[in-house]
Amino acid sequence: MASPMRSLLSNPDRYLQSFRLFLEKSTEHQSMRQFMERQLPEVIASIGNGKSTINVLSVGGGAGEMDLLILSKVQARYPGVTISNDVIEPSADQISKYKERVAQASNLGNVKFTWHKETAYEYESRMNAEKKSKKWDFIHMIQMLYYVKDIPATIRYFHSLLESQGKLLIILVSEAVTCGHW
């Protein structure tokens, strides 16, 4: 009898290896990049109007590749404005790779980074325990909702953290790649 399939989530190294192979063989990464190039500028068009600092929250930022593309679009729309970019990412390895990417970039002088090594649920629990509810101009959740137990509650919580003109971007893969924002 065949052994039951093990979840890739139980082995982070195997997951990352599988995810990299998936990206090589799929059009998903290309579709996300096209979205960032074509639609994201319109999505972020009003998030920073009249602000001296734009607050961005990355939920499940991984190694930062998509995050840095997003930040470049925010910088292009709001040149010279300070960007406070907080990253929620449970993998120390991914955070390390993200920090390496930031160190190699030359155009992030106006971006202040803060990394939180925790899950979305742990972040929410910590903020509630500390009675903090910082408001964000832009929150993005790219390929991370697969890892939460209560998707509607997670979306409701992060949506509640948006400023009045803020945007929540969620990207998930389905049979056809879907990108949406609220």
Describe the overall structure.
The chain is built from seven helices and six strands. It has helices spanning 12-25, 28-38, 40-43, 65-77, 92-104, 120-129, 151-160, and strands at 53-59, 82-88, 111-116, 136-142, 162-172, 178-181. A six-stranded mixed beta sheet has the order 3-2-1-4-5-6. The mean pLDDT is 84.
Could you list some keywords that capture this structure?
single chain; 182 residues; alpha/beta; six-stranded mixed beta sheet; 7 helices
Tell me how many strands there are.
6
Strand coverage percent: 15-25%
Output the helix-strand order. Answer: HHHEHEHEHEHEE
Alpha carbon gyration radius: 17 Å
Question: Which strands sit side by side, in order, in the main sheet?
Answer: 3-2-1-4-5-6
What class do helices, strands and sheet pairing give? alpha/beta
Low-confidence stretches: none
User: What would the average pLDDT be, to the nearest integer?
Assistant: 84
How many helices? Answer: 7
Shape designation: globular
Name the assembly state: single chain
What is the rounded distance between the termini? 47 Å
Estimate the helix proportion, in percent: 40-55%
Q: Quick one: biggest sheet?
A: 6 strands, mixed
